[in-house]
Design goal:
Blueprint lengths: L10 H20 L2 E2 L8 E5 L2 E7 L6 E2 L30 H16 L9 H10 L11 H10 L10 H5 L2 H7 L11 H5 L3 H8 L2 H15 L22 H4 L12
Antiparallel strand pairs: 1-4, 2-3
Helix pairs in contact: 1-2, 2-4
């Protein structure tokens, strides 16, 4: 089942969920893949009510990326949960997933997204701006600092996943009670063998789950530049390049 909607979590419980998403993103980014559609509907609980076993699901809008990222400019994702540069026709990189992860973190703490609105165009416009007001909340300083870092509308200033893992908030909760190991940096993974990466980064269940989903999703592509995945409207085929320039994006209904 997906993470419960309109439910708020304590900082500790939000950490338990978000840290697993960060761990999953470390894995897919290490293998050169952007998810591009992180949102509550795509965070699945393996067992009802058990938040320490979550799965990052639905790689339907994911794509390979290169370090120069010169071809990553396609508009995609769900407005309200994507990085602003994804809606601004700008070249982007792996930090779009960090921003969406920050939106998810906010959602877990507040019970709704920062750009939620009954008006679709209002949501898109606010998301394009990318600024999230955190002044109204009384979260701990460590929590607020992490939210600011993940939700910085400027990707140059936005936290990396390594910075998220090394943040005071993560350090505080990683070593509290029954700690989960989230201290492995992407840089350290580069110095490990492929087999060591798997054993350090994922539990056996997670490793098998991600392998199966990623292999089935990306086996069809011969190179990173072939067949980029596009945003789909509910009742049509993938949108064309010209349609991607329109601000009137369609929210994608995701079936879990």
């Amino acid at each position: 089942m997906e993470v419960m909607k309109n439910k708020t979590f304590t900082e500790r419980k939000a950490f338990i969920i978000i840290s697993q998403v960060v761990e999953a993103l470390h894995y897919v980014h290490f293998h050169g893949i952007l998810h591009r559609d992180i949102k509550p509907e795509n965070i699945i609980l393996r067992e009802e009510g058990i938040i320490d076993q979550v799965i990052l699901a639905d790689f339907g809008l994911a794509d390979y990326y290169r370090k120069d990222c010169k071809y990553m400019f396609t508009r995609c994702g769900t407005p309200g949960y994507v990085a602003p540069e994804l809606l601004q026709d700008k070249i982007y990189d792996h930090k779009v997933d960090v921003y969406s992860c920050g939106i998810l973190f906010y959602y877990l703490l507040v019970g709704k997204g920062p750009f939620d609105s009954n008006n679709y165009d209002t949501t898109v416009k606010a998301n394009q701006n990318g600024h999230v007001d955190l002044t109204q909340f009384s979260f701990t300083n460590e929590c607020l600092d992490l939210l600011r870092g993940m939700l910085d509308p400027n990707p140059q200033n936005r936290f990396t996943l390594d910075q998220v893992n090394l943040s005071p908030f993560f350090k505080k909760h990683t070593f509290a009670n029954n700690p989960i190991n989230h201290s492995i940096s992407l840089e350290s993974l580069k110095n490990k063998s492929h087999s060591q990466t798997h054993s350090l980064q994922l539990s056996p269940y997670q490793e098998q789950r991600y392998k199966q989903e990623l292999n089935s999703r990306f086996a069809q592509y011969a190179s990173p530049l072939q067949s980029p995945l596009r945003l789909k409207s509910p009742n049509s085929s993938p949108l064309t390049d010209s349609q991607h320039q329109s601000p009137n994006l369609q929210r994608v209904p995701i079936q879990i």
